[in-house]
Amino acid sequence: MAYGTDGFLGITKQGSWGTATTSWHFVPFVSEGLNTNIETIMPASILDRYDEPNPLEGLQTVEGDIVMELNPLDCAPFLHAACGSSTTTITLSGAVYTHEFKLTQDRFDTNAALTPYGFQIYRGVEQAFQLTDGQANTLEIAITAGSIVQMTTGLICRTTSLMTKGTVSYFNSDAFTWDQASFSLSGAAVTDFEEIKISLNNALEGIVLLDGTKRRGKIQRNGYREIRVSGTIDLPDLNEYDIFMAQTEREMIATLKKTSAISSGYYEQLEIIIPSFRYEGFPVNIGGPGRVTVGFTGRGVYNSGSATTMKMTLVNTNANVL
What we know:
The protein is mainly beta. The chain has one domain. Helices cover 5% and strands 52% of the residues. It contains two helices and 21 strands. A hairpin with a 5-residue loop joins strand 9 and strand 10. The longest helix has 8 residues.
């Protein structure tokens, strides 16, 4: 009998497409839904019988989500996987490092849109599952009042196999909580958000080739990258509604910052900057006798001055992204 408490999850950055690595970073996680599916191909031939033809084995696909509580030492590889580019600087020698994650305008190679990652998942029974050539198609960071901050990564992988499970070790790092979050619009603090979700969609697609295999041959983009923001906001006045009606674009900054210092004056934190945020929906309605809140939606618009739609900056004690 297998239990989720026996399981673990490891991630590793691949140096090239199709080449697995063995240097694992094990991360705490809430749940995973990475499934291997085998499609069924049904022949259309008529066989002088009422029963359907014998099925043939079709395409093998591997994809799904990883949900984790966002902490400053374990989120970095997932941020890099989703953004595709990062730079690291020494903020305080031997103690504090700043990692800036940028939305890449390049392709990793002709096979992969983004840096490929491998994953090791032990599900509490016998061997671990090894997934290779994983691409982060989506990333969502959810900040909800009264809760731990969650991050969900949607993956598309090329292959899966079984492997001998690894020896697990973890960083000692607590997740961010809602009271460590702050927000600003156009440089002014906003304290009326009750929930906010920031989502990145890389518009990736697995490409099936005539290459003699039943797996996807490539994972590349098949559309525009999108940044979306949604949430719930209290309605003390109509200021935000007026901005919605004017379709004004403003800089939105979400900051998660620990309250205990790494070193004097330095704190672990994650800052998400959307240089040009614009509301798409701001429905003001009465749903009953209680408070009036607004479930808004919006998007990040490419900002030519910043040359990006979103940028994330992580400060922690790890010199490496992975």
